[in-house]
Amino acid sequence: MVTMNNAEKILARVDNLPLYLHAYAYHLNMRLERILPNDLLDIAHENQLRGVKIHVLDGERYSLENMNDSELSAFGDKARQLNLDVHIETSASDKKAIDQVAAIALKTGASSVRFYPRYEGNLQEVMSIIAKDIAYIRDTYQNSGLTFTLEQHEDLKSHELASLIKQSEMESLSLLFDFANMINANEHPLDALDTMAPHITQVHIKDALIVNEEGGLGHKACISGQGDMPFKALLTKLICLGDEKPQVMAYGLEEEVDYYAPAFRFENEGDNPWIPWRQMSETPLPEANALEERLIKEKEDAINQIKFVRSVLQQIKKEAIDILNT
């Protein structure tokens, strides 16, 4: 909540919050190649956003992964012409995936890379493998000029992620906080934020309904403002991270309506639970007769999320003004 102690910090930051368009807000349209990477730059520019967050696979045949060097360079040139920052994302942490995403980031002039691990095994074994992946990133890319973020992505708990960052000894590595992904690790948003707070520099904003499952929790993403995520409280806390200057450098607008993720961590699971294999995140396509309407709605939802987040920020700003004027 807004208090006398944080009100001035909020007023100094809230109007210049670095909001980024996230490609997943157009996931279905990009799967069907209706919206392509260059289109995202136009949408971000039209909506006065700071930049874009885009996965190497977004856009299928026309994705960054499938671009040649001149096409990647042209994408980066367009972003710079529009004064947009670019963040590149991948859904793995192994050497092959990291080398690919880093190469794309460097060729496009992107500033940051997001990754998350997907390994199967007992927790302690999985944590050891991830630590080795991070060591490779540190030894290979710590002087590349890129920053790296590890996203909390449904299977690891907040303290486990924080320990990986602390052990990494990599200054350019931090955490990306997703509004809902801690649910599947049997955690709740504000508790997870408090645990991860010292290490968070980037955010994915979305809303979700919490689904009670046997001994655990799943989440179903939904229209922002219609779910169970404490939207205003999360944004307030995130804005206030960092004493002298803002700690969070990028807020990705990641509307994910109808995306579902099951429980991965459970009550009474012990200290070395089994972490199951999982596929990359994907929202199912609707039936053919509902497809066109759904694609139109996805585009509307994405723009509406931008408006909703800005309206919440103005509510937070008003509370700060009211507190300072009392």
TrEMBL record:
Residues 93-238 form the Xylose isomerase-like TIM barrel domain. InterPro entries: IolE/XylAMocC-like, Xyl_isomerase-like_sf, Xyl_isomerase-like_TIM-brl. It comes from the Bacteria. This is Xylose isomerase-like TIM barrel domain-containing protein. It comes from Citrobacter enshiensis.
